[in-house]
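Input (structure):
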């Protein structure tokens, strides 16, 4: 693995991405967990539920609790207590994501660095960080972000091991860190876009979906970005915003696979006792810090939670193909 650097990588330093695969990533992840660098415990599926034809899977993960326990220096309390004089390092001067050279997988495209998530829910879970640590999570994705994400997805796919990527744009979409990043992880269950004949009214919220063609994915990076930007513009209109010359930054989620990309406009849910659902949560994969949180979801109704955190589907939703 390569160490983090602030300068642009050379062609030789980009090479590991070309040979990276699922098995290598998994082996490295397991080593980091065994050595205590990555804090991961196998999550427990506590309930699978269908609410008005929308499937939910509730998973309890200690990683969710650990994420809330990080101190202002990005350290877990037990580490801070054992090492009171230590200072956390960050992925750049503008970053709020803790740096450890052992987390780094590769730097590539002169724009991004791929690292292991310090406190993952899923095995393995990766972060695609911008090399410019001043780029912010509330900013929309740009051409390089989309291109880099698709490149990593393409590299990691293999039969029986599919990956997806998600992006939480801003706090109201479930983001917990400010340094801009996309998360990439194995897809452990099916999401609604995989049924091309799905009933859009079964989805609790407005969403804007595009299935990817070979021309879009094998052509110029700008072609893939144009799809995202078009979906984001539609999402902005759904929030009642007027479009200017450039699509605005709005709270939204992005979920992306090799075959499709979906944009979900968000609004603040104001749901007492429930942490803001992130992108997987909006797709029905809900990560909880404890089983007690499931009681709150049950009381409100899982479908109602998502509808209130997005834009309710009762107003209809044009779907792109």
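Output (sequence):
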């Amino acid at each position: 693995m390569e160490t983090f650097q602030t300068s642009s990588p050379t062609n030789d330093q980009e090479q590991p991405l070309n040979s990276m695969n699922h098995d290598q990533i998994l082996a490295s992840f397991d080593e980091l967990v065994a050595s205590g660098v990555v804090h991961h415990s196998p999550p427990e599926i506590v309930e699978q539920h269908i609410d008005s034809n929308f499937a939910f899977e509730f998973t309890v993960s200690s990683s969710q609790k650990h994420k809330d326990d990080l101190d202002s220096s990005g350290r877990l309390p037990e580490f801070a207590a054992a090492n009171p004089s230590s200072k956390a390092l960050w992925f750049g001067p503008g970053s709020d994501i803790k740096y450890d050279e052992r987390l780094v997988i590769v730097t590539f495209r002169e724009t991004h660095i791929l690292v292991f998530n310090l406190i993952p829910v899923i095995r393995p879970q990766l972060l695609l960080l911008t090399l410019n640590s001043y780029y912010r999570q509330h900013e929309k994705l740009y051409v390089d972000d989309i291109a880099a994400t698709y490149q990593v997805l393409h590299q990691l796919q293999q039969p029986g091991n599919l990956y997806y990527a998600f992006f939480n744009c801003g706090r109201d979409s479930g983001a917990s860190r400010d340094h801009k990043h996309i998360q990439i992880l194995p897809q452990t269950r099916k999401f609604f876009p995989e049924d091309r004949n799905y009933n859009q009214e079964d989805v609790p919220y407005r969403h804007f979906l595009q299935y990817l063609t070979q021309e879009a994915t094998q052509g110029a990076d700008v072609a893939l970005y144009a799809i995202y930007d078009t979906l984001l513009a539609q999402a902005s209109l759904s929030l009642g915003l007027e479009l200017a010359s450039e699509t605005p930054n709005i709270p939204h989620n992005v979920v992306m696979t090799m075959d499709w990309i979906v944009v979900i406009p968000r609004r603040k849910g104001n749901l007492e006792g429930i942490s803001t659902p992130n992108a997987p949560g909006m797709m029905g994969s809900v990560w909880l810090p404890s089983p007690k949180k499931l009681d709150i979801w049950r009381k409100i109704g899982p479908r109602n939670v998502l509808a209130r955190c997005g834009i309710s589907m009762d107003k209809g939703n044009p779907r792109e193909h």
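Notes: Confidence is low (pLDDT under 50) at residues 1-15, 75-83, 315-321. Residues 221-238 form the longest helix (18 residues).
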